[in-house]
Amino acid sequence: MSKQTIAVLDFGSQYTQVIARRIRECQVHSRIYSHKVSAETLRADGVRGVILSGGPASVRAKGSPRPDAAVFTLGVPVLGICYGVQLMGEMLGGKVAGSGHREYGHGTLNFRAGSDLLHGIRGPLRVWNSHGDKVARLPRGFRAVASTENSEHALIEDSKRQFFGIQFHPEVAHSERGMDILRNFLFRICRCKADWVMDDYVATAVADIRRQVGKAHVILGLSGGVDSSVAAALIQKAIGSQLTCVFVDNGLLRLGEREQVERMFRGRFKVNLRVVDASKAFLGKLRGVQDPERKRKVIGHEFIRVFDSEVRKIRSKTKVEFLAQGTLYPDIIESISIDGNPAATIKSHHNVGGLPKRMKLRLLEPLRELFKDEVRALGEALGLPREMVWRHPFPGPGLAVRVCGDITPERLDILRKADAIFIDELRKSGQYDKVWQAFAVFLPVRTVGVMGDERTYDHVCALRAVTSSDAMTADWAHLPYEVLRKASSRIINEVKGFNRVCYDISSKPPSTIEWE
């Protein structure tokens, strides 16, 4: 597999991950680095090009983040986007000034000259802006290629040194021909090859796992979700019987989930799978707990206790050296701190909180280089069924945060049935793959109803379906009325305990996707 990589230096932009993903959509490998990375590291990694991301800071502000100046002497093409082009202007001898007013939203890009970056593209273009500064005077050797209403230097280049700068955001869908501009940078300017493909990744990852693990034994907490399932299938392919998966049934799973996991991994993949039925322990700990955050903490602590206990049993008979986790690339990126950037949202990532330190095991994270869509593609390449690979996200606390208020076995039971009916109707109608996430919620509210000639006094079921690209923002899905009618009718008729169904039409923000 090719080792060619495009380096994306992160200056705190909300679009940094989008840039990296767009590059990979072109089948070119990308890697996000802290803006502090040394030019020597980039040289040692053999990068084919460098992209300087946008960011919330102003290059005119004291202490604003800067890259290693030697990045401009690596001898590889450099592309600055938004804050990145302003950095190039400032660091290479030009001048950056305030725009007079913030330029946000759509603008018109008018071409003034030809450029390899614009090969095969005709102007004008509608592009997406988000900036308060602009390059007022070009550095020596640069020329303006295109302009917008508020910037004469919206696209600049020094073709001799292969330096390019863009004031708008080609990586977002709102910018016309943005992907074509990025493709020109990758293929015409950096001379990359489109060879970042999953089949090659499988072979490389299997070899890496074998080299890292050797003859040691690996434990993996299998949840049945996409990430842990793909990690399990990949590690099983690499080391076979050296892998043991532990599936904890916490009593908060979807309908038939435990049975599906057992069929798939014991039957199809022949994984050494240990299933722990801890549902009574979890539900006992959750009795009377109503606060959503308290629910999460109780579930997290109990999971660690149960998982740790099971691993101790395994380690009494087998030498275990590794704990495998389904950590993804965005999880790693979110732990990178952007100094001096108060707008950056930073969080520490703990896939199985506290376990590696507690167990004194080394971590094995075979998916840490991949984005979610790439993990799904990897799952299909490994032979996992599409239904499992493209399953909607499911919260770590499970149905505990979809039963509002007290959690009881009875409430969980009727919610599972209602949720299964809703998902079934979405699949039958072809709507399932069109939404990001869909589920049912148990509301601790009783309403009067009439069934036949009898009065009922039962609970309310809320249905939620949203569209999104990354779960950071989401809109409620405009499902066909007929789909909602069928789901509602089946839930009321088939699930004893619900006599009313509501559809959630709130977006994120201000609401969240989950109810708790």
Fold and architecture overview:
- With about 525 residues, the chain is an alpha/beta fold.
- It has 3 domains: about 5-190, Class I glutamine amidotransferase (GATase) domain (Rossmann fold), CATH 3.40.50.880; about 200-390, Rossmann fold (3-Layer(aba) Sandwich), CATH 3.40.50.620; about 405-505, GMP Synthetase, Chain A, domain 3, CATH 3.30.300.
- Helices cover about 35% and strands about 25% of the residues.
- The chain is built from 15 helices and 18 strands.
- The chain has helices at about 15-25, 40-45, 85-90, 180-190, 200-215, 225-240, 255-270, 280-285, 290-315, 330-335, 355-360, 370-380, 385-390, 410-430, 480-495; strands at about 5-10, 30-35, 45-50, 80, 95-110, 125-135, 145-150, 150-160, 165, 215-220, 245-250, 270-275, 320-325, 360-365, 435-450, 455-465, 475, 500-505.
- The strands form 3 sheets. Strands 2-1-3-4-9-8-7-5-6 form a 9-stranded mixed sheet, sandwiched between helices.
- Helix 6 links the parallel strand 10 and strand 11.
- It is globular, with a radius of gyration of 26 Å.
- The chain starts with a strand and ends in a 13-residue tail after the last strand.
Overall geometry:
globular
Strand content: 25-35%
Number of separate domains? 3
Let me know the average pLDDT. Answer: 89
> Judging by the overall fold, what is the CATH architecture of the largest domain?
3-Layer(aba) Sandwich
Helical content stands at: 25-40%
Number of strands: 18
**Structural class from helices and strands?**
alpha/beta
Largest sheet: 9 strands, mixed
CATH topology category name of the largest domain: Rossmann fold
The helix tally amounts to: 15
